[in-house]
Design a protein that fits this description.
9-stranded mixed beta sheet, Rossmann fold, 3 domains, 19 helices, alpha/beta, TIM Barrel, about 700 residues, Immunoglobulin-like, about 20% strand
Length: about 700
C-alpha cells in the first residue's frame, strides 16, 4: 500500500512538508485566479485540492463536458509553482442527476428520500450513481493524468453516506449471501430464533429500517459492515479508474478520524496515503487532546508512516451550534500538533472564504476582509515555520505504546439494548489516553490484529467484540513479557454480537485473572479504594468480579454497598508479563495510578521530569520533541535537559515557560549539562539546516 511511488515521499522530497488548502475557484471569476496564486505563494502554500465540489460545472448536463475553465486553472497553478491534488467531484452530484434519476438519492431509515439541494445526496448502492461517478472520473483521469501540476488524486469527499432503499436492500442481500452462503447459517449468526425473526428466503431480508421496537443487534452490526464495505467499494472503483491512466501519483480520500460510519482500518489498506480531516473546537479546552488521539489513530492507520492532514480550519467553522473562533496563535499550535504526530503536511478548508452557500461563515486562508488580516498573516507565518521544519518530513514517531481500537467493536458496544448507553467507547478511549498524553509518551492507535511485539505497553480501553485470534494474540503478547491494560465491558461478545457463555470477560478471563458474574450500571456513585487511604468514585459502571486462579492481585476494591470488598482493579501475572483489568469507570486520578503501575512494569519513562499541565502537549518525532501550549496562559514545563529550538535557535531548559499558544521544537536528547560550546554547535547545525 505504501510504495515509494504511491506515498508522500515523492512530494516531500522536493519541497519538504506539504502546505495547502481546498481551492474552489468555480465560486470566483477567473480574473481573480492570478491574484489567488500570488497569495498562495506569499503564504507558502505549495499544493491545493481542486474540484471536490465541481461536478455541475464539469458536467452541466448528462454527458456534457466543460473542462476549459479547469484546463486554464491547472496551467495557471503549474505556472505559479503550485501543485494540485485533483479531486473527483462525486461527493456532491449535480441536481440533474437526482432529478432525472431519483433512484440515485438516498433514503433514510424512515423511508423518506433525502433530496438534492445540499451535498452527499447519493445512494452508495445505486447502479446509476456509480455509472455516472465512473464516467466523470474517467473523463478527469484521461484528461489530466500526466498534467505537470497533478501531484495527487483525491477520491470523493468524506465518504459516509448510508441508504435504506430497495436497491440497497438488494445489495445487502448479495453481501450477506457472500458472507453466510446459506440462510441456515445467517439465521444462526443473527440469532433469529429470538422474537420469531427467522428468514425463509433471502428476499425477506431488509436493511434495519424503522421498526416498532429494538432491532436485531446482529442485523444492525452486519448492516454497518455492509455500509462500510459499500463506501470502500466506491473509493476503490474510482481509484482503479484513475490508476489505469496514472500509475505515478498517489491516490487517497479524506477520512474523518473517529467517524462511526466506516471502518478506516479497511480504508487505510486501500489508500496510498492516509489523509484525515480534523477540526479543533476552540470552545473545548480538551479538544487538543482528542486531536492528538486522532492524529495517533492516523499514524496507526498508516502503519507508522507519515500521513496528511487534509482539512483543518484557520479559525471558526460554521457547523457547530456556537462557532467560537481560534485565539491568535491557536492555528499554529493546532497545525504543529499534527506535524509532531506524523503528518507530512497541513491543509486548510478552504483557501478563499465563500460569499454564498452553506459554508459562507466558515473561516479560510483568505477571509472576505482580504490578506491584511490576522488569519492570513498567521497562515503565512506558519508556512515559513513549516519550511524550517523540512528535515522532519518523512521521519517517524517511534511509539512504545499501542492503544487498541476496533470499529466493529465500537458499533456493537453502543447498541441500544446494552446495559447502559453511558459507557461510551470514544470517552473510554480518551480517558485511558489522557495519562499517556500528560507524560508526553508516543502512542499509536491500532487494530487488535496488529503486531504487538514492538510495543512495551498495550492499552485496550474498550473491546466489546473480541475475535478468538485476537484474544490469543493478547495472551501471547503478555506471556512473552508484554504489559496489557484492559478496560471494562471487554471481551463480552463474539463477531455476531452474541454474548459469551459463562463468566466474563470471556476469552480473556484466564489472561486477566478475573471472573465476572454481573454487570452493574450504577444508580449512584460507588467508592473504589486503592489501599487503605486513597479512594475515588465510579459514577456509571461497576462489575461484580472475583479473582480467578492464584496469580492475581487486587489493586483496588469497591467500598460500601452491594459490591463492598469485591475487586475493582486486578493485576495478574501471566507468563513473563502482566495484565490489569479495570472493572469500573474510574476517574482520571485513578486511571493515572493504574497506568503508572503498568508503565513502570513496562520500563517506559516520560521524557519529561513531571506530567504536563493539561493545556500542554509533548510529542517526539524524528529526534525532536515538540512542546505545544494550547492555552492563552503561560505554562511551566519540566524538561530535564537543555536544547535549542529548531524554529528560533534559542536555548531552553531544563525548566522552561511556554508562552500563550507557544511552540518549541527541541533537539533530543541533549544532556542537562550541555555546555556553551555544544549549544553553539546546535545553533550552527540549525542555521545549516542539519539540526
Amino acid at each position: 500500500m505504501f510504495s515509494s511511488s504511491h506515498s508522500l515521499t515523492g512530494l516531500t522530497d522536493r519541497s519538504g512538508l506539504i502546505f495547502g488548502a481546498d481551492y474552489n475557484p468555480e465560486q470566483w471569476p477567473a480574473a481573480t485566479w492570478p491574484e489567488d496564486i500570488r497569495l498562495m505563494q506569499e503564504a507558502g502554500i505549495n499544493m491545493v485540492t481542486v474540484g471536490v465540489f465541481s461536478w455541475a460545472r464539469l458536467e452541466p448536463s448528462e454527458g456534457a463536458r466543460n473542462f476549459g475553465w479547469l484546463d486554464h486553472l491547472m496551467d495557471l497553478l503549474h505556472g505559479g509553482g503550485i501543485r494540485v491534488c485533483l479531486a473527483t467531484p462525486t461527493a456532491s452530484p449535480p441536481a440533474w442527476l437526482g432529478h432525472e434519476y431519483p433512484e440515485t438519492l438516498p433514503v433514510d431509515a424512515d423511508g423518506s428520500t433525502l433530496w438534492y439541494g445540499s451535498r452527499n445526496q447519493f445512494n452508495p448502492s445505486s447502479a446509476k450513481y456509480r455509472q455516472a461517478a465512473a464516467a466523470i472520473t474517467e473523463s478527469l483521469a484521461r484528461r489530466y493524468a500526466g498534467h505537470p501540476a497533478v501531484a495527487m488524486w483525491h477520491v470523493g469527499n468524506e465518504l459516509g453516506q448510508v441508504s435504506y432503499d430497495d436497491e440497497t436492500a438488494l445489495g445487502f442481500r448479495t453481501w450477506l449471501t457472500r458472507r453466510y452462503a446459506t440462510l441456515d447459517r445467517l439465521n444462526q449468526s443473527w440469532g433469529t430464533a429470538f422474537w420469531s425473526q427467522a428468514y425463509g428466503s433471502w428476499e425477506e431480508i431488509l436493511p434495519p429500517r424503522k421498526a416498532p421496537y429494538l432491532i436485531n443487534p446482529s442485523q444492525k452490526l452486519d448492516f454497518q459492515r455492509f455500509t462500510s464495505a459499500q463506501l470502500l467499494s466506491l473509493y476503490r472503483a474510482e481509484r482503479d479508474i484513475i490508476r489505469r491512466y496514472d500509475t505515478r501519483c498517489p491516490v487517497t480520500t479524506n477520512l474523518m478520524g473517529f467517524f462511526r460510519g466506516a471502518d478506516y482500518f479497511a480504508f487505510a489498506k486501500e489508500t496510498d496515503v492516509v489523509a484525515n480531516d480534523w477540526y479543533t473546537d476552540p470552545a473545548d479546552p480538551d479538544s487538543h487532546r482528542l486531536g492528538a488521539l486522532t492524529h495517533d489513530l492516523c499514524r496507526g492507520l498508516s502503519g507508522g508512516m507519515p500521513w496528511l492532514l487534509m482539512e483543518s480550519a484557520t479559525s471558526a467553522v460554521n457547523w457547530r451550534e456556537h462557532n467560537v473562533p481560534k485565539e491568535p496563535g491557536e492555528l499554529r499550535v493546532d497545525a504543529l500538533s499534527a506535524v509532531a504526530r506524523g503528518a507530512d503536511g497541513v491543509c486548510f478548508f478552504q483557501f478563499r472564504q465563500s460569499r454564498f452557500g452553506a459554508e459562507r461563515f466558515h473561516s479560510a486562508v483568505v477571509p472576505l476582509a482580504g490578506e491584511n488580516t490576522r488569519a492570513f498573516r498567521e497562515v503565512a507565518e506558519l508556512g515559513k515555520e513549516l519550511r524550517s521544519l523540512r528535515q522532519v518530513a518523512g521521519t517517524s514517531c517511534a511509539a512504545t505504546i499501542a492503544v487498541l481500537f476496533d470499529w466493529e467493536s465500537w458499533w456493537a458496544a453502543e447498541s441500544p439494548d446494552t446495559p447502559t448507553n453511558r459507557l461510551q467507547v470514544l470517552e473510554q478511549l480518551q480517558a485511558y489516553y489522557a495519562p499517556l498524553h500528560r507524560r508526553g509518551l508516543s502512542v499509536e492507535v491500532v487494530h487488535p490484529s496488529a503486531e504487538l511485539g514492538r510495543y512495551g505497553l498495550v492499552v485496550a480501553p474498550s473491546l466489546f467484540l473480541l475475535a478468538p485470534e485476537h484474544s490469543n494474540s493478547l495472551a501471547a503478547y503478555v506471556r512473552g513479557g508484554g504489559q496489557l491494560v484492559v478496560g471494562p465491558f471487554s471481551a463480552v461478545a463474539d463477531s455476531n454480537g452474541h454474548l459469551a457463555d459463562g463468566r466474563f470477560p470471556g476469552s480473556l478471563a484466564d489472561l486477566l485473572g478475573v471472573d465476572g458474574e454481573e454487570w452493574v450500571p450504577l444508580a449512584s456513585p460507588v467508592e473504589v479504594r486503592f489501599g487503605p487511604i486513597q479512594a475515588v468514585q465510579a459514577h456509571i459502571w461497576a462489575e461484580d468480579l472475583a479473582l480467578r486462579g492464584n496469580t492475581g492481585k487486587v489493586m483496588a476494591h469497591f467500598g460500601a454497598g452491594r459490591l463492598e470488598g469485591r475487586p475493582a482493579v486486578v493485576r495478574n501475572c501471566h507468563g513473563a508479563g502482566s495484565s490489569w483489568y479495570v472493572g469500573a469507570d474510574l476517574p482520571a486520578e485513578a486511571l493515572e495510578l493504574v497506568l503508572a503501575d503498568a508503565l513502570a512494569a513496562a520500563g517506559i519513562a516520560s521524557p519529561l521530569t513531571a506530567p504536563l499541565p493539561d493545556p500542554v502537549e509533548a510529542a517526539s518525532r524524528g529526534g525532536h520533541l515538540f512542546l505545544l501550549n494550547h492555552s492563552a496562559r503561560p505554562q511551566e514545563v519540566g524538561l530535564g535537559w537543555t536544547s535549542v529550538d529548531l524554529l528560533t535557535g534559542t536555548a531552553h531548559g531544563p525548566e522552561l515557560t511556554l508562552p500563550p499558544f507557544g511552540a518549541l521544537v527541541l533537539k533530543e536528547p541533549v544532556p542537562t549539562q550541555t555546555g556553551a560550546a555544544e549549544l553553539s554547535n546546535l545553533k550552527n547545525d540549525r542555521n545549516r539546516g542539519t539540526a
